[in-house]
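Quick question, first post here. What does this chain look like in 3D?
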Amino acid sequence: MQFNLFTLVFLIATFAYVITLLWLNLRQDRAVAKSFDAVPAEFSEKISLKQHQKAAEYTQAKLLVNHFEIIFSTIVLLVWTLGGGLNWLDGAWQALGYDALNSGVFFIISLMMIASLIDLPFSLYRTFILEQKFGFNKTNIKTFVGDLFKEFILMLIIGLPLIYAVLWLMSFMGEFWWAYVWLVLTGFSLLMFWLYPSYIAPIFNKFKPLDNLELKAKIDNLLTRTGFKSDGVFVMDGSKRSSHGNAYFTGIGKNKRIVFFDTLLEGMEDQEVEAILAHELGHFHHKHIRKHMITSFVISLLGLALLGYLINQAWFFNGLGVETMSNHTALILFTLTMPVFSFFIAPISNALSRKHEFEADAFAAEHTNADDLVSSLVKLYRDNASTLTPDKLYSAFHDSHPSASIRIAELKRHA
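> Answer (accepted):
Ran it through. Tokens below.
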């Protein structure tokens, strides 16, 4: 195994990544503990001290689990790379005598399956111990195992042909293979975005049309006022897995759906649901979804172009513990190590996302009552046990939405 200067760069970047994550977690823990005995004044009328403390304990419990996940995942990363894990797995498939394309596909699929098994204990703990302890889990073993089986089948049906296509293009399309791969991945993403509402999401959840006629009339009126067209308003059986509430838009073109979790509708007044929907419509009005997609496509193009350079550099492979240069190992090495090197630009993308949230809130305040959106958000913070006092630096790196107090204060300004 030949290590080089890039090995040292990788180790320094990984160390900085891990230390920063753990430090941010400690900052978040201290921020939550500091306000444990007092509800922030702007929330004291609607959130009790007991509910506030439950949110603090829930946040701290998640942080503790995340401590272990950070350390464990870093060890796994080092085992796969510098520890020779990828090198061994690649050699094992090559020894079976398959051609380069099939060997690469089997290598990637087996790696994905191993990664899923490694993550399984954490997933079980989060679902059946952590979420159960705080009263959020509604998933049973049958549903949990069923979801794993469905995900595996989808990986084979959808993921396997995509992996074949990508590795084939990398092998046979010459120096600029990365441009062809980008076109395929971009088309695939758009196709999945279109297919997801009607064909993929129903595999995991049941969707039924909204049957609250009074609320539906309000929603139809709001859609007419804002000039928005969708494939319908649906209620999803989110309570099948969790008591957390949420709402979202999905799909593109004419195949767009508005989806409310049944858990959200249970605790909201009609006008509050309308305000939440107006916020989501704000994202479409300001073309946030389109902007996000374009940005992600540009970033993926730049990333693939960078991989197009690294794939011919022996120091890239050797520096990360892989002896034999190949398309499939380059793809996996790039995928495994990019989070380490890109983590420190997270505050930039989160800042842009929070700007979009403020714009969507302003749109909602223009087309509905801002006070209704405030009350709905407070209920969501309360019912989902979201911390009201996050650390600013932690939030900058991890949160795509503004903190509760800042967001509420801005909405009250609109009101």
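The longest helix spans residues 100-133.
DSSP finds 16 helices and four strands in the chain.
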